[in-house]
Every structure is written in C-alpha cells, then in structure tokens.
C-alpha cells in the first residue's frame, strides 16, 4: 500500500499542507453523494456545507499523526474524511438559529441561510451518518482496529464529547466560568474531535507502543485546547472578512472565553505555554513527528 513517501517527507510544510488539503477535498467530493442524486436538494446542501472551504486542520492532524505509524495514505484519507464530515456537521448545526444563530461561515452564507432550517438539520444528520458509514466499509481496516476507530469517533462526537461540550456551552451563556469549567467545556466541544483526529491518524498504521500512545494522547489534548485558546483570541482580534465568520461573537453573546477569563495578554501567554507542552509531548518521536510539530506551530500562529 501507498504510505508516506520519501518525497512527501521532504516537502516544505506549506507544500505538504496544500497537498493534503487537495487530496482531502477530492476524497470528500468522491465520498459525498452526487449533487444530482435524489434527494438532490439535500445532497447539494451537504456538498455546499462540506466542500470548498475550511482549513482542514483535523484532516491535516490525521495525516500528520499517520506519519508516526507509517500509515497507508488511502486509509488516512478515509479517516480524515470521516473526521471532517463530523466537523462540517457540527458547524452546520452550530450556526442554526436554535444554537449560535449565525449567517456567515467559511466566507459564505451558512447552510440554513442558503437553503433552509429543515434542510440544514438534515444536512448535519446525514453528514454524521456518512462519517460512520465510510469508516465501517469492509476495506477500511482490519476488524478490531476498525471497531476501535469507530468507537473512538463515536465517543468523541457524542454527549461525552463534542455534543456534550456544546450543551455546556449553551448553558454557560451569560455565566462566569472558572478555568477548570472552561477547560472542560472546550476539552469536549472542540478538543474531543481534535484529539480523535490525532488518535485516528496514529491508529491507521503499524501499532504504536503503550508509551507512544500515551505521548500522542498528551499531545492531542494540549493541541485541542491550544486550538480553542487561539480561536478565542482570534474572535476578538481578527476581522469578519479574515475569519470568514462573524468576529466578536463571543463577547456579543456574553460567552465565557479564555480572553474574558484571563485577558488578551495572558490568553496569548497561555497559548504559547500550551504550544510548548504539546511539542514536549512529541519529543520522544523524533523526526517522525515533524509534521505534527509544524502543524502545532501553524495552529499557534494562524490568523484565521
Ligand atoms: C452542534 C453538536 C454540535 C456541536 C458544535 C464545534 C462546535 C460544536 C461548534 C463550532 C463553534 C465554534 C466556533 C467553536 C470554536 C472552535 C471551532 C470548532 C472553530 C471552527 O473550526 P475551524 O477553525 O473551522 O477548524 P474551518 O472552517 O477552518 O473548518
């Protein structure tokens, strides 16, 4: 099987990133139902919500973690698509009037604005089902590993993961949370899927040892929190045009964030600290973790 080739490992990070993003875009377009397949409006809306947008950070994490275990590229591609389908579903539902009620996502009208609320609800439901369907296909991986990966993604997405974090988030509006409460909310809402992306990538290749799995998990948790702290900082420092989504929403909605909890400067220091902890967790992997190291820097320094 096609694994990460020597040529790929020599690519500069921006070229590697563009390569993975392009590969994932093509794979998603292939995995999604055709736009003209019945029910065409639902399938068009699913493609609208998933294709042509987004940084694809979670797929990049799958591929980067796959380099630790010399994972076959076709398997990484499927795992990356599954995680991105779950992420796309969460954004569609999060933008709906019953949740964050937003009109702009990835620089375009949100799914319920472009289509309608009932369609957006079904888009989220269908993207979630498709994520599990593609992981469950017979040629994806050997049985026990496939079950482990399915369970991992299911738990990360559900009430003890992303959906649970969203419930805590909705209940926290207008309240003051202390740091452990904020951390739990984000570990579930944003962190669980990022952690799943990293662990799935690690599971795609030759089995990692117990110590390696622990180190990877430590990295994944720090990276998930780092992503969110940077997101909070960008929400109050970047423009709507740059972000492609409505800036300043957290403060306007009286949402607890790292910036509201600790102020902008301390939030920046906290992000730098988390980045350092994430990198420290990778130290035992040496050169194999190069892409994860580069991605951590990308997440820390991202501008949108
Ligand atoms: C509706 C079950 C359910 C969950 C929603 C992920 C989420 C939970 C809500 C999204 C709201 C939000 C802005 C969270 C902050 C972190 C985050 C997930 C940002 C968006 O992810 P990016 O920046 O987006 O990776 P792109 O568009 O680049 O894919």
TrEMBL record:
- Print the keywords alphabetically: Isoprene biosynthesis, Magnesium, Metal-binding, Transferase
- Gene Ontology biological-process annotations: terpenoid biosynthetic process
What CDD domains does the database record attribute to this sequence?
Trans_IPPS_HT
Database matches in PROSITE patterns: POLYPRENYL_SYNTHASE_1
> One Pfam family name from the record?
polyprenyl_synt
Gene3D superfamilies for the chain: Farnesyl Diphosphate Synthase
Cofactor dependency:
Mg(2+)
Q: What would you give as a GO molecular function for this chain, any one?
A: (2E,6E)-farnesyl diphosphate synthase activity
Superkingdom: Bacteria
E.C. code: 2.5.1.10
Note the InterPro entries from the entry: Isoprenoid_synthase_dom_sf, Polyprenyl_synt, Polyprenyl_synt_CS, Prenyl_diphosphate_synthase
Record's GO cellular component, any one?
cytoplasm
Q: Which family does it belong to?
A: Belongs to the FPP/GGPP synthase family.
Name of the protein this chain belongs to: Farnesyl diphosphate synthase
The organism named in the record is: Candidatus Accumulibacter adjunctus
Name the gene: ispA
């Amino acid at each position: 099987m096609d694994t990460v080739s020597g040529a790929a490992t020599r690519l500069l990070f921006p070229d590697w990133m563009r390569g993975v993003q392009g590969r994932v875009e093509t794979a998603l377009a292939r995995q999604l139902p055709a736009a003209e397949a019945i029910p065409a409006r639902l399938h068009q809306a699913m493609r609208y919500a998933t294709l042509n947008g987004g940084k694809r950070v979670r797929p990049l994490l799958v591929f980067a973690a796959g380099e630790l275990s010399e994972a076959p590229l076709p398997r990484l591609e499927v795992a990356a698509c599954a995680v991105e389908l779950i992420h796309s579903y969460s954004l569609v539902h999060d933008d709906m009037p019953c949740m964050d009620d937003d009109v702009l996502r990835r620089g375009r009208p949100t799914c319920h604005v472009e289509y309608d609320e009932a369609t957006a609800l079904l888009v989220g439901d269908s993207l979630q089902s498709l994520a599990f369907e593609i992981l469950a296909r017979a040629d994806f991986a050997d049985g026990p590993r496939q079950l482990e990966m399915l369970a991992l993604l299911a738990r990360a997405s559900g009430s003890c993961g992303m959906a649970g974090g969203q419930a805590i988030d909705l209940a926290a509006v207008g309240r003051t949370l202390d740091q452990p409460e904020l951390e739990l909310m984000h570990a579930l809402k944003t962190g669980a899927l990022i952690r799943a992306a990293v662990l799935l990538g690690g599971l795609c290749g030759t089995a990692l040892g117990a110590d390696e799995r622990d180190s990877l998990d430590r990295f994944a948790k720090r990276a998930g929190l780092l992503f969110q702290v940077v997101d909070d900082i960008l929400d109050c420092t970047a423009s709507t045009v740059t972000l492609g989504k409505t800036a300043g929403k957290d403060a306007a909605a009286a949402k607890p964030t790292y910036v509201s909890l600790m102020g902008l400067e301390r939030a920046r220091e906290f992000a730098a600290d988390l980045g350092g902890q994430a990198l420290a967790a990778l130290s035992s992997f040496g050169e194999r973790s190069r892409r994860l190291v580069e991605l951590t820097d990308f997440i820390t320094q991202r501008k949108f």
